[in-house]
Amino acid sequence: MLSPNPAVKFTYEDYQHTPEDQRYELLDGELIMAPAPNLGHQRIDARLGVLLYTFVEQRGLGEVFFAPCDVVLSNTDVVQPDLLFVSNERAHLLLGGANVLGAPDLVVEVLSPSTAGRDRTLKRALYAKHGVKEYWLVDPDARTATVLRLGEGAFEVEAIYGEGQTMASPTLAGFTIDLNEIF
Predict the structure, then answer these.
(1) What is the model's pLDDT at position 129?
(2) Which of 176, 116, 177 minimizes the C-alpha distance to 141?
(3) Cα 13 to Cα 109: distance, rounded to the nearest angstrom
């Protein structure tokens, strides 16, 4: 009697052969195609990205990258966060030149209807497992930003900021942003 084939898990090598004109992520060996974000998402991402990039660049703290940028967390986990920050202390993650090889200091996901569930669960767990220090979930519909900080193997909510409030980063000392500037 034949048994069913075990589930196929794709690897980073498989991922490298996906079409360049389409966005994919590799989550626990599963290839997931991500559609392009809508214009509202893009606006928030751009505004937040410019502020984050300017802060980091002016202080020489490291580098900020925008999606699509592959972050290789393991052979079966490759993500493309909306924004990410790699500190000078973790600059070795950039030495390959093609992507980020390991956990950035900070990852930002702007929630979209098609990705919010994964961002809040699977990707949150992956980022914690691999040592991302800080994770922001920016919700355009609720007009909130949740700042999570890595605790003992899991993220803990540092703060949830709403429209009209000033968000602060525990990882980037001195970085604050009035959420009215991004929503």
Answers:
(1) 97
(2) 116
(3) 25
Looking from the CA of 92 toward its CB, the CA atoms found within 13 Å total: 3
Tell me the CA distances in angstroms from 123 to 1, 120, 140, 167, one per residue in order.
Answer: 38, 7, 18, 22
For residue 83, give both structure tokens: 């924004």
In the three-class reduction of DSSP (H, G, I as helix; E, B as strand; rest coil), residue 64 is classed as strand
Q: What is the pLDDT of residues 138-160, one digit of tens each?
A: 999 999 999 999 999 899 999 99
Domain ranges of the chain: 12-181
pTM: 0.92
Distance CA 101, CA 119 (A): 20
CATH number for the region 12-181 comes to: 3.90.1570.10
